[in-house]
Structures are given as structure tokens and as C-alpha cells.
């Protein structure tokens, strides 16, 4: 029997594993007509492996740019970004309208060259777990907003990356559905720990889900406060400690604006 | 009200317009001061349609074959151009202006050249039809490819998808509605192309029939041939719409998604 001398190439990106996310003194400017737009200035952000860091800020504070830097889709002008391989979950679910829910989730594996049946088989158990059983063959148009978001999240998890970059994943949902999906995400992350950078404009959501809340200023985006959230889970929005942290974050946001 | 009746009701406005137009035409042709060699009355066209039915049918088969084959050639060429231009910015700059320029070529100008090169057979007809029908297919497909959400491409990159994988799973399916839109426009221009091509060197086909009928003072026969060409184009257009609905049901979803 031939001896295996070399490990099979598994990791697509050679990034030092288990650093979580480390963003140090990062600045990013975009050239635009009529002058440059400074999106980020001297931003620091740290998410240890398994930690959830929520980033809140007004629109146009460079939150999406920050996530693209974490995902390696952009490079900083100054400073360094070190991160384990990350997968992006954008605000809109971006499900493919022609593909079934199951195939949309399996896309994460198909993208890496996994065969169709194998990818579907890998996605199927997640549908059971996430209350999507019976909707495998439904096209996205037939699903509710909350279900679509869950399918998108299965796709994100199946990518098998240690870091999840979530870009306002619940912003497009109505208030009731949002609460439901937030609770569901908290529960899922408890079972499937990942390093998460969660961008949101909802301060309450940040406090409910994050191990730390990073508050950013309007353009150019700077970090004005980092609030650790040392509260046990599950958290309730009416818990006095949650309310207190929410007010503290809102104050920091208000001071920055 | 039953479903069948309601469906029939949907056709009523179209039917009313056709009846009104044909009626006005009939009145003008019969009572107006117009030579029936210039404008035959509808009843004369109907008579020609019936009397020449064998002749018209034989020639329709020729023209229909040319159009169908021509559209297939046009679809292959248009799709090829669109994909190549989409994947290569260099090709976009180099080839796209030429595609536009190709549409300004007056067909009669090159028709004789094509006859000299390719003879009187099927080949020069296919070239003419494909030349004018590939353009709407290429442009509509390109637009659909360009309309893919850039965020979707970024997402695919974080899923470690290669450029080709993204094309296969995201861009190619998204381009299909564009391909169909282009093909539906192509149907109409392909019929015009077939007529032009037949008139510049052919001994059969409905275009040839029209060309022969006019100097023979058989204007009603020419109109009958045109009527059949229109009906053929409408039938082809309808067939494409039907296939589109069957093949791309997601593009007709009304709720949610970027369906168009």
C-alpha cells in the first residue's frame, strides 16, 4: 500500500489558522469622482476564535468595507488584517431564484467542486435542524423572509470557514421575524461555535448576540467605543443589564454622530 | 364565468381591433379611389390565400426552414459573442463596436456578394438571417449577464468559487431570460432577413414569391404571402414564449427574488 507522504491540500487559503480576526490600524480610501472617499480610518477590531463581535454604526460608516477586508475581498491601504478564512453572508440573502432551497444551500459545496448529489446529501441534515424540512425542493420565491435567511445561513455554514462575516443579515426582515431569527442564530452559534463579525445598525441586536460591541462613527469610520458584553446566554432584551449596555452603546453612537 | 370563457374574453380586444382594421381596409379598397393592383381588398387576398394554397404552402416550407435554421445559427453566434465579450474586457472593447457596425450593413449591398461566394442555395440565406438575428440575442444576453448582482460575485469568491464556477452556477442561468428575450426579437427580424435573402438570389420561398408576384400583377398573391409570413412569425414568437415559461418558471415568479 502506498504511503501517504503529503497531506492532501484542504485549506484553500494559507492563513495561519485560529487567529480569529485581527484588524490593526486599518485605513481604506476609495477614489471617487470629485475627490476620494475615506471609508475607514485607523480601525482596530479583535475577535478571538469562537467570539462574536458585533459592529454597530450609522449607515456609511464603512461597515461593509470592514467585512470585505475581513473576507479578503479588499486590501487595506494602511494597517494589517489577519483572519482565518472567512465567508460572507450579505444583507440580502442572494439566493439563486432558479435553484431549489436545497441546491441554494449546497451551492457552498458545489462552488468548491463537490458533486451535486454529495453536496445535496451534506446540506439535507441542516434542513432538518433548522426547521426547513419539507422545503428542500421549494424555490426561494415560495419561502418566507425568515426561511430564506435560514437557507442562506445553511449555505454560509456549509462553506466550512471558521469565520462568518455577517452583513446586516436581519435588516430586511420584519420586526417579529427578526426577533425569531436572532434567537435562532444565538442558539445555532451556541451549538456550532464560529468566529463571527456581525455588522448591524440595531444596537439591541448587537448586545443580544455579541461578546463585544464595537461602536463606529460616521464616515470616515473610526472605532469610538468597544463594549465587552459579559452576560450569560440566552439573553433577554428586557434584562436590566442588556438595557444598560444598549443605552451605553446608544450614548457612544450619539456622541460620535 | 368559466375559465374557457374568460380566456376567450381576453382575446376579444385583439379580435375587435383586427376586425376593425380589416373592415376599414375593405371599405377603403372597394369604395376608395385606389387601384386594386396597388392595394388589393381583403376579400381578394383571402381568395388568393385559398386559390394559391398549394403554392404558398410549398414556399412557406422553404422559408420556414431557412428562418428556423438561421435562428439556430444566430443563437449560437449571439450566445458565443455574448459570453466571450462578458468574460474578456479586451474583447468587449475590440469586438462590441464591430457588432454594432454589423447592423448598419444594408443587406441588399452584400446579398449579391454572398450569392457570388456561396451560390443560390441555403448558405447565403443563413448568413443573412444570422447576421441580423444574432445581434438582439447577443445584446440581450450580454445585458442579462451584466445585470448579475456584483455582491453575488463577491459571495461566490468567499465560497472559493473560480471565475468559471461562478459563471456556470450564477451567471449562465441568470442570462437565460436574456437569451429568450433576444430570441423573441430575433424571430421577427429573421423573417425579414429571409425575405431579403430570397429576393437577392433564389428561385423559391415566400420572399421570392412576393418578388415574382408584383411584376406579374398578382398583388393579392403577394399580400397573401406576407400574411403567411406574419402568421409564421407570430406562431414562432408564441412557441418561444411557451418554451420560456416551461423552461424558466422561476423567471415568472412574482414574489421575492430578483426575478424579472
Short account of what is shown:
With 257 residues, chain A is an alpha/beta fold.
Q: Which chains have the largest interface?
A: A-B, 32 and 26 residues
Taking the alpha carbons of the first and last residues of chain B, their distance comes to 31 Å
Structural class of chain A: alpha/beta
Mean pLDDT of chain B: 89
- What are the segments of chain A in which pLDDT stays under 50 over at least 5 consecutive residues? 1-16
CATH top level assignment of the largest domain in chain A: Alpha Beta
Largest sheet strand order of chain A: 5-6-7-3-8-9
Number of domains of chain B: 2
Shape of chain A: globular
Silhouette of chain B = globular
Q: Please give the largest β-sheet of chain B.
A: none
Oligomer: heterodimer
Count of DSSP-assigned helices of chain A: 7
Share of β-strand residues of chain B: under 5%
User: What structural category arises from helix and sheet content of chain B?
Assistant: mainly alpha
Walkthrough of the structure:
The complex is a heterodimer of chains A (257) and B (260). By secondary structure, chain A is α/β, with parallel strands linked by helices. Chain A folds into two domains: 21-85 and 161-256, Rossmann fold (3-Layer(aba) Sandwich); 95-143 and 151-159, no CATH class. In chain A, 34% of the residues lie in helices and 23% in strands. In chain A, the strands form two sheets. Chain A has a six-stranded mixed β-sheet with strand order 5-6-7-3-8-9, sandwiched between helices. In chain A, helix 2 (101-110) crosses helix 3, helix 2 runs parallel beside helix 4 (145-158) and helix 4 packs parallel to helix 5. The longest helix of chain A is centred in the last third of the chain and has 17 residues, at 175-191. Chain B has two domains: 1-34; 45-251, MetI-like fold, CATH 1.10.3720.10. Helices cover 80% and strands 0% of the residues of chain B. Chain B has ten helices and no strands. In chain B, helix 2 (42-51) crosses helix 10 (219-247), helix 5 (107-118) crosses helix 6 and helix 8 packs antiparallel against helix 10. Chain B is mainly alpha-helical and 260 residues long. The interface between A and B is medium-sized, with 32 and 26 residues.
Amino acid at each position: 500500500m502506498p504511503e501517504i507522504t503529503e497531506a492532501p491540500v484542504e485549506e484553500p487559503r494559507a492563513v495561519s489558522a485560529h487567529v480569529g480576526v485581527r484588524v490593526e490600524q486599518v485605513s481604506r480610501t476609495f477614489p471617487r469622482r470629485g475627490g476620494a472617499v475615506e471609508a475607514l480610518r485607523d480601525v482596530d477590531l479583535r475577535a478571538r476564535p469562537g467570539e462574536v463581535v458585533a459592529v454597530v454604526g450609522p449607515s456609511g460608516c464603512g461597515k461593509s468595507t470592514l467585512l470585505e477586508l475581513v473576507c479578503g475581498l479588499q486590501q487595506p491601504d494602511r494597517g494589517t488584517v489577519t483572519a482565518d478564512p472567512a465567508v460572507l453572508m450579505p444583507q440580502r440573502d442572494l439566493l439563486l431564484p432558479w435553484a431549489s432551497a436545497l441546491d441554494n444551500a449546497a451551492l457552498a459545496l458545489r462552488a468548491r467542486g463537490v458533486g451535486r448529489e454529495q453536496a445535496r446529501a451534506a446540506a439535507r441534515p441542516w434542513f432538518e435542524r433548522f426547521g426547513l424540512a419539507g422545503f428542500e425542493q421549494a424555490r426561494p420565491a415560495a419561502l418566507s423572509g425568515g426561511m430564506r435567511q435560514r437557507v442562506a445561513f445553511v449555505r454560509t455554514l456549509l462553506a466550512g470557514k471558521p469565520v462568518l462575516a455577517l452583513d446586516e443579515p436581519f435588516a430586511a426582515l420584519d420586526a417579529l421575524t427578526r426577533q425569531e431569527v436572532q434567537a435562532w442564530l444565538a442558539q445555532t452559534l451556541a451549538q456550532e461555535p464560529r468566529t463571527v463579525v456581525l455588522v448591524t445598525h440595531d444596537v439591541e441586536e448587537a448586545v443580544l448576540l455579541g461578546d463585544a460591541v464595537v461602536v463606529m462613527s460616521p464616515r470616515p469610520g473610526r472605532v469610538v467605543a468597544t463594549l465587552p458584553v459579559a452576560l450569560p446566554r440566552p439573553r433577554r432584551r428586557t434584562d436590566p443589564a442588556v438595557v444598560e449596555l444598549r443605552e451605553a452603546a446608544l450614548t457612544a453612537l450619539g456622541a460620535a454622530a | 364565468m368559466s375559465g374557457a370563457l374568460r380566456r376567450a374574453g381576453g382575446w376579444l380586444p385583439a379580435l375587435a381591433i383586427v376586425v376593425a382594421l380589416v373592415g376599414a381596409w375593405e371599405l377603403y379598397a372597394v369604395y376608395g379611389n385606389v387601384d386594386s393592383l396597388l392595394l388589393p381588398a381583403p376579400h381578394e387576398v383571402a381568395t388568393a390565400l385559398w386559390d394559391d394554397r398549394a403554392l404558398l404552402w410549398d414556399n412557406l416550407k422553404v422559408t420556414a426552414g431557412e428562418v428556423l435554421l438561421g435562428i439556430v445559427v444566430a443563437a449560437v453566434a449571439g450566445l458565443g459573442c455574448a459570453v466571450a465579450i462578458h468574460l474578456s474586457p479586451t474583447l468587449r472593447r475590440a469586438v462590441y463596436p464591430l457588432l454594432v457596425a454589423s447592423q448598419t450593413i444594408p443587406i441588399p449591398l452584400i446579398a449579391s456578394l454572398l450569392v457570388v461566394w456561396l451560390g443560390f442555395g441555403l448558405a447565403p440565406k443563413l448568413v443573412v438571417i444570422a447576421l441580423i438575428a444574432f445581434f438582439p440575442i447577443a445584446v440581450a444576453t450580454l445585458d442579462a449577464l451584466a445585470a448579475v448582482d456584483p455582491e453575488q460575485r463577491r459571495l461566490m469568491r468567499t465560497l472559493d468559487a473560480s471565475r468559471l464556477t461562478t459563471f456556470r452556477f450564477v451567471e449562465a442561468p441568470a442570462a437565460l431570460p436574456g437569451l429568450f428575450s433576444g430570441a423573441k426579437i430575433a424571430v421577427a427580424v429573421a423573417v425579414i432577413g429571409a425575405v431579403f435573402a430570397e429576393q437577392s438570389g433564389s428561385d423559391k420561398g415566400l420572399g421570392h414569391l412576393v418578388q415574382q408576384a408584383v411584376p406579374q400583377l398578382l398583388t393579392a398573391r403577394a399580400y397573401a404571402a406576407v400574411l403567411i409570413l406574419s402568421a409564421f412569425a407570430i406562431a414562432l414568437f408564441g412557441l418561444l414564449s411557451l418554451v420560456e415559461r416551461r423552461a424558466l418558471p422561476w423567471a415568472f415568479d412574482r414574489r421575492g427574488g430578483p426575478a424579472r
